[in-house]
């Protein structure tokens, strides 16, 4: 392994009461794209924290060799000085600062403490060209979409003379076009500038397409390192092997079978309109009508910006947008959804795509998050029965297999998949008739995904109507009985799952407005 | 899950949670030594309660405001304003003392509605609204009083802050009634803890080992009885102490055991998530500020009764003491964390320090510096602990 740029040997990292990494080794060759796959909680993030110095040297056992020399990083600045730059899943950009200011944040182009704006902006423009982003460097970052912000992050990494770029779930929040562009860029950095990349991703198709080598981690240990050279087709053929390594079991079908009688109509939305909260000339949802029946899983497929989340949140108690008009019927009767409490009372539940911002109170424990939307059910005349609350939480911990030390542990400590299960528990406890799931498996590993799919089926079998919003077409097709496509705020098609093909759906999802 | 939790786990968890209690005990011991025991003398303990009760009352409301992610800078002015209204009613117009109290409480609620309107309905940050309130209500105090002090209050009104319940059962040199009340408190506490423990076991939750439980109850019993013995040897059970104890009990309960309390914590932890869980955030904010106004009025009544006058400059800087009490007691600046008990302990830490330094004859200037440093250290300790806790996660 003379050509390796990074060697992590026998890394063992213990937290009080739990061993996060057990004798993990990782070897990355110079100039390759190295994929890391593993379930949530498998130890990927901890491994990257060890590498970048967030977990300082001395708090773990094992050795890190970078370019053949032993390293002991005590902070991020130590690792960045060697050219190791990590881009986190949650972007670390300041929305009110310009692109150029963000790129050089902490690394300002200045003379004697005074920023030289000419150099800053000129240099930023050069970096933006390298990442293929056609924007003015003085544009505030907050005005860019997530995809472009991701590119600004990479430009920022390039400004630090990166030689090893680590991307944690880089495409989790991107649509297909932006993902494609980003992966192309990473490939370009490898081929043209010799930048080595490590990509952590749950999207195995993406790994198959781009990675030269993939390391699979499970339960804090390295399972295997797979050579993925030989093109995307060969890579895709290796996906079952990766999945097997991640979950330690074969997964014949990604989507569990469901057999259910579809019953009466539960939810009907008629002629729904929503306007942007601050830009009155932007119509986000334009005359949407749809229905969902008992026992039915309805998919809403749309690209980012199609108005999926805006539709769901505005129906859920007018939580988004203004000048909302249209009618919502539950069980054929007009429903009052003027506020969130009304919507919950009408039997609607909405599980947000962004659980950290809209779904959970991360500094609070599992128990209190689960009861948060239906406190009335564990209280009498305003007084909470603390013991009943705990048994409710225990019930959901067991039935949804939430991996947490106890139900009194803080939700912020759990992995993404388990946080999502807590968010689901919270809404299941409201006993809704309609469950709107917005990107229910975002940032969730394969094993937990399967569990969530199984849960969706069980809920449908109990006679609930489920609306699944997803940007992953295989997920929509695998789960739904019927699929609506949404483009630019309009329903552009309604297809039964049996007849759907990815090509047809994508065509409907990209349909331009006449 | 059933059974007793591991001792080591319990200790590490408890040190983190009860760091503030340990600090309190340390400060009490320190000043007891420095004042050669004068701090814990019967007369001084009684005095301590009378002198700092209004800060503790304010701290109860303040900690809830802070947990919800707000701040209230106006409470000092509201204390003065409500006190002045009571004085005008009782002293100037010669109306009965209870009408003065009702008027003050009514004004407190109106003040709360006013500030709640701007915070909850209009959506102006509480910092700005209450900064304005600080100026507005100070001005209103001066106008109400015509810029002069009003005194004295009739005896019935003074009793609120200076009265004692004693001699009911007599006693040879000490007040038996005080001891009986304290013993009742201890018994109720022990029974309530025991019931909670049984309930936990019934629901298959882990509980502390029996001997730890026994030691905990015994320590509380000894402290309460020792405290009661001291004040029984002075002037007996102060009315204010009963009021304060009732408020602490009620608000601990409201904050921990009710839907309203839970909503306050949920909003402070993640406002968006709370809103999307159906929490009526406007209503909760409105109620929080009305409640703060009400507690400010109670503090205003107690303060005016104790000083036996209403002054234009009353309650100056009380808001800062109340805020400091909440933060020393473990409330988080970002909201979502904090407890009524914590704020009370925080307030007591400030009280014991001020009182101890007064006994030692240390000047105001030094006292101010020491209290400032303690505030910083207390929050620094909390931040340090949280970092450690975060690393474990």
From TrEMBL, chain A:
Domain of life assignment: Bacteria
Residues of the ABC transporter domain: 6-244, 267-513
Keyword Cell membrane attributed: yes
SMART domains: AAA (SM00382)
TM region positions: none
Annotated protein name in UniProt: ATP-binding cassette domain-containing protein
Keywords, ordered alphabetically: ATP-binding, Cell membrane, Membrane, Nucleotide-binding, Repeat, Sugar transport, Translocase, Transport
Entry keyword annotation includes Membrane: yes
TrEMBL record, chain B:
Function recorded in the entry: Part of the binding-protein-dependent transport system for D-xylose. Probably responsible for the translocation of the substrate across the membrane.
Signal peptide annotation: none
Keywords: Cell inner membrane, Cell membrane, Membrane, Sugar transport, Transmembrane, Transmembrane helix, Transport
Pfam family, one: BPD_transp_2
Origin: domain of life: Bacteria
Chain segments annotated as transmembrane: 20-39, 45-66, 73-91, 97-114, 121-140, 173-191, 211-231, 237-254, 283-305, 317-337, 368-384
UniProt keyword Glycosyltransferase, yes or no: no
UniProt-recorded name of the protein: Xylose transport system permease protein XylH
Compartment annotation: Cell membrane
InterPro entries in alphabetical order: ABC_transp_permease (IPR001851)
Membrane topology, as annotated: Multi-pass membrane protein
């Amino acid at each position: 392994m003379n050509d390796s740029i990074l060697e992590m040997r026998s890394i063992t990292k213990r937290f009080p009461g739990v061993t996060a990494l057990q004798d993990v080794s990782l070897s990355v060759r110079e100039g390759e794209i190295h994929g890391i796959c593993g379930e949530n909680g498998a130890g990927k993030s901890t491994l990257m924290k060890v590498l970048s110095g967030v977990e300082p040297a001395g708090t773990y056992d094992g050795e890190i060799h970078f370019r053949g020399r032993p390293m002991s990083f005590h902070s991020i600045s130590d690792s960045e000085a060697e050219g190791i730059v990590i881009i986190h899943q949650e972007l670390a950009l300041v929305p009110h600062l310009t692109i150029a200011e963000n790129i050089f944040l902490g690394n300002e182009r200045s003379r004697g403490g005074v920023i030289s704006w000419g150099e800053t902006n000129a240099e930023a423009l050069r970096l933006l060209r390298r990442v293929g982003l056609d924007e003015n460097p003085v544009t505030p970052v907050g005005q860019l979409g997530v995809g472009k912000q991701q590119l600004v992050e990479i430009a920022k990494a390039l400004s630090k003379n990166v030689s090893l770029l680590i991307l944690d779930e880089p495409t989790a929040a991107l649509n297909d076009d932006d993902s494609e562009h980003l992966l192309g860029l990473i490939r370009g950095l490898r081929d043209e500038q010799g930048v080595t990349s490590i990509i952590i991703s749950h999207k195995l198709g993406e790994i198959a397409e781009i990675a030269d080598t993939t390391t699979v981690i499970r339960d804090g240990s390295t399972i295997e390192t797979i050579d993925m050279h030989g093109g995307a087709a060969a890579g895709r053929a290796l996906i079952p092997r990766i999945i097997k390594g991640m979950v330690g079991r074969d997964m014949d079908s990604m989507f569990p079978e469901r057999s259910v009688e579809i019953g009466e109509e539960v939810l009907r939305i008629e002629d729904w309109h929503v306007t942007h909260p601050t830009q009155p000339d932007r119509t986000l949802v334009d005359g949407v009508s749809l229905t969902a029946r008992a026992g039915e899983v309805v998919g809403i497929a749309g690209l980012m910006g199609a108005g999926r989340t805006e539709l769901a949140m505005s129906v859920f108690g007018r939580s988004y947008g203004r000048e909302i008009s249209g009618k919502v019927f539950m069980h054929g009767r007009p429903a009052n959804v003027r506020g969130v409490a009304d919507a919950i009372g009408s039997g609607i539940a909405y599980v947000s795509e962004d659980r950290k911002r809209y779904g959970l109170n991360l500094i609070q424990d599992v128990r209190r998050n689960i009861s948060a939307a239906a406190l009335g059910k564990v209280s009498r005349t305003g007084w909470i029965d603390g013991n009943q609350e705990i048994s409710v939480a225990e019930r959901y911990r067991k039935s949804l297999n939430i991996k947490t030390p106890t139900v009194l542990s803080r939700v912020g400590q759990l992995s993404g998949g388990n946080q999502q299960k807590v968010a689901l528990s919270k809404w299941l406890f409201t006993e809704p008739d309609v469950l709107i799931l917005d990107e229910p498996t975002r940032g969730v590993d394969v094993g937990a995904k399967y569990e969530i799919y199984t849960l969706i089926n069980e809920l449908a079998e109990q006679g609930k109507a489920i609306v699944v919003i997803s940007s992953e077409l295989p997920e929509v097709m695998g789960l739904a009985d019927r699929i609506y496509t949404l483009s630019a705020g309009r329903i552009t098609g309604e297809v039964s799952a049996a007849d759907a093909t990815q090509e047809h759906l994508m065509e409907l999802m990209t349909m331009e407005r006449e | 899950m059933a059974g007793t939790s591991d001792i080591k786990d319990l200790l590490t968890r408890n040190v983190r949670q009860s760091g503030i209690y340990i600090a309190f005990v340390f400060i009490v011991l320190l000043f007891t030594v420095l004042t050669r025991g004068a701090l814990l003398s019967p007369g001084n303990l009684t005095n301590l309660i009378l002198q700092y009760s209004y800060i503790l009352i304010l701290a109860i409301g303040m900690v809830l405001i802070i947990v919800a992610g707000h701040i209230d800078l106006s409470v000092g002015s509201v204390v003065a304003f409500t006190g002045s209204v009571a004085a005008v009613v009782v002293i100037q117009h010669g109306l009965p003392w209870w009408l003065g109290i009702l008027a003050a409480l009514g004004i407190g609620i109106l003040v709360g509605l006013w500030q709640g309107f701007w915070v909850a309905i209009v959506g102006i940050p509480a910092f700005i609204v209450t900064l304005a309130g600080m100026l507005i209500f100070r001005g209103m105090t001066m106008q109400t009083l015509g810029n002069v002090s009003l005194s004295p209050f009739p005896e019935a009104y003074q009793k609120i802050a200076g009265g004692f319940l004693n001699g009911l059962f007599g006693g040879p040199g000490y007040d038996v009634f005080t001891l009986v009340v304290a013993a009742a408190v201890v018994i109720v506490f022990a029974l309530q803890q025991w019931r909670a423990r049984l309930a936990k076991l019934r629901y298959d939750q882990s509980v502390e080992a029996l001997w730890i439980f026994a030691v905990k109850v015994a320590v509380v019993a000894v402290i309460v009885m020792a405290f009661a013995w001291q004040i029984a040897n002075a002037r007996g059970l102060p009315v204010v102490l009963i009021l304060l104890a009732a408020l602490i009990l009620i608000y601990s309960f409201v904050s921990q055991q009710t839907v309203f309390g839970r909503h306050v914590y949920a909003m402070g932890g993640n406002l968006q998530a709370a809103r999307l869980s159906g929490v009526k955030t406007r209503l909760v904010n409105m109620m929080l500020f009305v409640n703060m106004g009400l507690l400010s009025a109670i503090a205003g009544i107690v303060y005016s009764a104790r000083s036996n006058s209403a002054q234009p400059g009353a309650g100056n800087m009380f808001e800062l003491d109340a805020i400091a009490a909440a933060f020393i007691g473990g409330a988080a600046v970002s909201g979502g964390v904090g407890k009524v008990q914590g704020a009370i302990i925080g307030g007591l830490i400030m009280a014991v320090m001020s009182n101890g330094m007064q006994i030692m004859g240390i000047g105001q200037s030094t006292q101010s510096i020491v209290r400032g440093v303690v505030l910083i250290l207390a929050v620094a300790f909390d931040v340090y602990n949280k970092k450690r806790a975060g690393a474990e996660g």
